[in-house]
Amino acid sequence: MSKEITPRAQDYSQWYNDLVIKGSLADHSAVRGCMVIKPYGFALWENMRDVLDKMFKDTGHQNAYFPLFIPKSLFEAEEKNAEGFAKECAIVTHYRLKTDPNNKGKLIVDPEAKLEEELVVRPTSEAIIWNTYKGWIQSYRDLPILVNQWANVVRWEMRTRLFLRTAEFLWQEGHTAHATKAEAVEETTKMLDVYADFVENWMALPVIKGVKTPNERFAGAEDTYCIEAMMQDGKALQAGTSHFLGQNFAKAFDVKFSDKNNTQDYVWATSWGVSTRLIGGLVMTHSDDEGLVLPPRIAPVQVVIVPIFKGDEQKAMIDEKMAVVVASFKAVGIRVKYDNTEHNRPGWKFAEYELKGVPIRIAVGPRDLENNQVELARRDTKEKTAISLDGLTETVAALLLEIQSNLLQRATKYRDDHITSVDTWDEFINVLDNKTGFVLAHWDGTAETEEKIKEQAKATIRCIPLDNPLEVGKCILTGNPSKQRVLFARAY
Hints:
- The chain is α+β, with helices and mostly antiparallel strands.
- The strands form 7 sheets. The chain has an 11-stranded mixed sheet with strand order 3-9-10-16-13-12-11-24-27-23-22, sandwiched between helices. A 5-stranded mixed sheet has the order 18-17-19-20-21, with helices on both faces. A 3-stranded antiparallel sheet has the order 4-8-5.
- A hairpin with a 2-residue loop joins strand 6 (97-100) and strand 7 (103-109).
- Helix 2 (39-58) crosses helix 6.
- It is globular and about 80 Å long.
């Protein structure tokens, strides 16, 4: 298979697909719109998952698991939520196949095996979870419930792209129950901060925290908070959401509790989630025309060592010396791979690990050992340096931190350089059409205007930034008064 990567400037979409496929992150499957996550891609997801899981547990949450199938009647209970996901739902209607009597080589649905009630394949779990919570909650002593689940969901997308939008994907979804509105709102914003911390400090992906407009919020939520990231083509990617659900689901499923005064009230709720689409965001934020660029903190392999040798004697000498280096790296938690396989030449290995985005590559040959050094190459800057074997572990550990910091600084500068404030419709369209990033513009606050802008510009209000300054102005479309600018972009 050719490893040639389509340049970003030539075809950004194909460049992305090339990196995902040729970088061994994922592959297409036999099921339309679904993907196979390959071992290298899954190792990346596992690293992300493990960090997030600890962050959730450190904030008091526990993991649980709920069914993949949701009875249709339960799914319908919260009307806005059901309506919001209805067009994406996959439905199970029968539970058995049988041999076609007219064609023994074929299976058909057994008409006698029709389910009494159709089952929705989980697009999100609020319905099944709140139906369960009804049996768990009677008193204020049962609250709060702080639960997260790692799961797969199905949303029947018609236009799919690996990681960014697939019919089935992996995610986590937190679902919490509280005695007061204040506690639920605090939970919602706390988890938004957890996501922002993870995405920025582990993925080196800068985000803007904000709240969605009513048109863009989660179906069934009172408020949706989000983190928005900018890709290298200027488009936005919603990197995570945290929803204040109010009492909507508690009312839909009649989940009440007795407070300290023995007064009955409905429970307050939140839900929040991030998914494997974060991997797509990672690819599009840091990578280049030579391949993936992965932040060290979550890279499956942080350092690869490639020996250069002729014959068994040289190989044995380098193997012996590098065994000590590898052990030293592993002792301090550095994820290292020593590739002394002989079926590929060093040049091929260099290109392969560059394509896979390994942060540091070390090359070592007999002459390097004579000079007590190795050649070290950084993936982020492509700089090559001769480094002494003395103190190599400390040098590499420090360099991994430097690469992590550099990637965040680089992405942040790119993001900040591509946010433009505009005051007119023509300026607004010019920024969007030239793919120069996010736009800060005035909007009159009406859903009608928001929809017209979306129709005419193919751009959405990504969020109202949480740190937004109030600023009197005029709406770019209607000219009506506006109190603040909001963040617009075309998005994935």
